[in-house]
Design a protein that fits this description.
By secondary structure, the chain is α+β, with helices and mostly antiparallel strands. It is built from four helices and seven strands, in the order αββαβββββαα.
């Protein structure tokens, strides 16, 4: 009588696939979620800096002898400076009329709540920018003044990509470690079966 046993090699492949495929799927899902979170964190931090520059500008608005004045501090736009030197733009509008700044920044949203900073994505001569907009009440004026500050998105996009690449590298390293551990664990676990198979073949 002959007893047929599974070959250790084929059984090892089956076990490796059974163990590695779920782990790979979990790592892929974790990587996608982490990449999305990285992008959100970079966006949030950069938006807070952009909002700080917007507040620094809007707080200097005042009326002087019937004219709307702006005392633009060097720190207002300096807060946005970085190693990549993103371009910074701003505009001040009252009743749809540009007071100072770049006319290309158009305040299309007329439903702004007072002192509520709103962020949006736009383009400046074909270059992606992030725009922060605020409706600011100035004494002696009946309607709010619309203040906008924008910056190009080169630096924040580059930072997000660098962090995501580091994340991908760590995920691949982790997958390699898991694959190695699983391989040695399966190999060690199948050794008794290989010994048993040799004994049965020897009896046959």
């Amino acid at each position: 009588m002959k007893i047929r046993l599974f070959r250790p090699a084929s059984l090892k492949r089956s076990l490796l696939l059974t163990l590695l495929l779920p782990n790979s799927s979990l790592l892929l899902e974790h990587g996608i979620s982490a990449a999305w979170l990285v992008a959100r964190v970079v966006q949030g931090v950069s938006d807070r800096v952009l909002s700080g520059s917007l507040q620094a500008i809007s707080e200097t608005l005042s009326m002087d002898e019937g004219y709307l004045t702006l005392d633009l501090p060097p720190s207002a736009l300096g807060m946005l400076e970085n190693s990549d030197r993103d371009n910074v733009y701003y505009s001040i509008r009252y009743r749809g009329k540009l007071i100072t700044g770049y006319p290309e920044l158009s305040a299309e949203d007329t439903n702004l709540r007072l002192h509520d900073v709103r962020f949006s994505d736009s383009n400046f001569h074909g270059i992606p920018i992030r725009v922060a907009t605020e409706a600011k009440l100035v004494p002696q004026l009946d309607d709010p003044v619309i203040v906008q500050v924008a910056e190009t998105t080169k630096n924040r996009t580059s930072l997000a990509h660098r962090m995501q690449l580091s994340l991908v590298a760590s995920e691949l390293f982790l997958l390699a470690v898991i694959a190695g551990l699983v391989y040695f664990a399966v190999d060690w676990g199948l050794r008794p079966l290989a010994v048993l198979r040799k004994e049965v073949e020897a009896r046959d």
